[in-house]
Amino acid sequence: VSEPRHGVRIAALWAGLTVVLVLIMVFLLGPHIPPYHGSEQSEDQHKVNVTLAALAMPVVALIWAYFGYAVAVFRQGSGGVDGALVDGPPITANARIQITWLAVTSVLVLGLAVYGTVGLLGDSHGAGGGQGPNPLSKPPASSDPLQVQVIGQQWLWTFRYPSYGGVETATLELPVNRMVEFHVTSLDVAHSFWAYELGVKADAIPGNDNVAYVEPTKVEGIQVRCAELCGLWHGHMNTFGRVVTGAQFANWIAARQSQFHGITKDLPQYGPSYFPDPQRRAG
Amino acid sequence: VPSFGHAPDPDWVSYLAQDSSGHWQHTTIYKVPAHTLVTVTIYNFDGASGLRNPFMSQVRGTRGGNAGIDGKAFTVLDPDDASHTFTIPDIGLSVPLKGVGDDAPNQCSVAPCPLSQAHTTITFTFMSPGKGTYRWQCFVPCAAGFIYGFGGPMQTIGWMSGEIEVT
Known about the structure:
Chain A is of the alpha+beta class.
């Protein structure tokens, strides 16, 4: 009895399963993969997540197809051969398969590296991640980014708006459709500024200025959390913010300037970061 | 109080609360009714440490947007004069507590501290939120003897932070 063409069968199974899984990933699961669509950057992250997941499907399909086929076809019947369990024939090297495998995976990895680098340096301007004090990918000056300093301390986020007299607030409010330039820093230990819906995550390091860009595109409420284990109340270091229209933002910032007029003059002169001296009593 | 005076950490700074019978209890878990005006009186026997973030020296979230120090209303405290804060971040309430002057006579260093000893009296009123549990804490890193004042009582529930149980 001639041996069936297992390779062809597995390849056909693999191809069919790949088509099904890719379609499920792109059209069924993909729309629900975070970080949703609150900004240009989170939109880009979403596309990347869906793309990576879709590209992983052929690999998943190959494993499932081969595994399923092997279980169904290569399974040794009860009792084995002449009543004894025996190994199958040894597998020997196959240069064609090895070269194909190396080539395909190399193209995949290098292609994704180029894809990711272009995304980071291109229109996404760091894709919402912190780029340190000297960002490689800045938006054009003509975009007139709104500077917001994000200050982490155990266990609270506060926000300074240098273009509005350096007023500091305990809530984050941003205008829609305007580039925002976050300067993330900390007064004590390492925190991580995570504006979930906006796709922003940037480390807050004491004495360090970590710049992240984001352009909110949707009027909505946003969650701000700390994504770095930072001590006793880390789990409570969160707040809510809002992305609002330009007019609403103007009203809000004017109200905050009025509310915090008394303390603004006592704040340290605005700088990309500051790290105060220890308190008088502290060790 | 500047230090609790009892085991397990007699040197640690802490809050105490007066129960309905007038006894001071070492606790930082407080219960208040929901949607009710709550008036708080804090007797502070500790000296000033200074705020790490001067922003916290503005009174926020109280009725009238102010608080009282020894009977005088204020909205902003000199950040260097702050000894502690009483802050409930989730409802936007924060009140800086003025410290006892370095040169004040008859200072109290260990609890219990009678009102005959040097202290500041801070009062404020706030509207309690809906039912739930809310974290409160001090935002002055006030743990003497720890690096930058962040350790010990600042990192242990029951000393400079706790919870408000709103029922």
